[in-house]
Design goal:
CATH topology: Glycolipid transfer protein, GLTP
Protein name: Ceramide-1-phosphate transfer protein
Order of helices and strands: HHEEHHHHHHHH
CATH class: Mainly Alpha
Bound molecules: ligand 1Q0
GO molecular function: ceramide 1-phosphate binding; ceramide 1-phosphate transfer activity; phospholipid binding
Strand content: under 5%
Membrane topology: Peripheral membrane protein
Shape: globular
Number of strands: 2
Keywords: Cell membrane, Cytoplasm, Endosome, Golgi apparatus, Lipid transport, Lipid-binding, Membrane, Nucleus, Transport
Pfam family, one: GLTP
Amino acid sequence: MSSTEEKFSLKEVLVSFKACLIDDDKDVILEHYVNGWKGLVRFMSSLGTIFSFVSKDAVSKIQIMESYLAGPNGERYRTLQSMVEYELSSDLVDLTKRSDHTDSGCRTLLRLHRALRWLQLFLEKLRVSNEDSKTSTLCTEAYNDSLANFHPWIVRKAATVSFIALPYRNTFFEIMNVGTTEEVVAMLGESMPYVTKVYDFTQEVYSQHNLLELP
Ligand code: 1Q0
């Protein structure tokens, strides 16, 4: 294990979502947003190969976003607002049916954005849970109230079956590498408001531009 992996803690990942917010919480820096997701996927990998079908999809979406960020128009992808303005004004988004721009930044980020809602619900449930709470139940409830609404039956089935393999709450908290249960709860209480702000702001921008149903 490398030294960076040893130090890996969920707190550092959630801090990326704090670093996202600029201009009085009126914009989101995409580089930090993507880094937050990279950290989350790394965390998910430590839960075992059962989630590899999830991480594969998440990694491919992260890579799409990274290629835009590092590409010739990278500056246009610096923030959420600049990406939306650039892609819409340059006709780079398939609005009703996937055709010429199957992997626009807008549709790719929308998938991550929907997953962020799951994360928000799941972590909040974990924060207020007690020792007897089952992580698989919390995760399933969070999923059913968010991402599941956008997934076909077969994906929902695969996802809910994989949740059964989630470790107990204590093990989960240990993997987070934050400290005692009290410290985990405090850390979640401190960082979740930033995740919520990022989620709410993204939702607002997508809603304003009618982008919430991108194919
Ligand atoms: C901790 C357990 C992880 C459970 C992850 C829950 C999400 C289930 C999602 C199932 C996704 C199935 C794969 C494919 C889906 C795609 O069809 C779909 C749509 O994309 P497209 O291109 O076909 O239109 N993709 C998505 O919906 C994106 C899904 C991304 C999910 C990313 C999840 C990353 C998870 C990180 C785990 C963080 C753990 C947090 C720490 C917990 C602390 C205790």
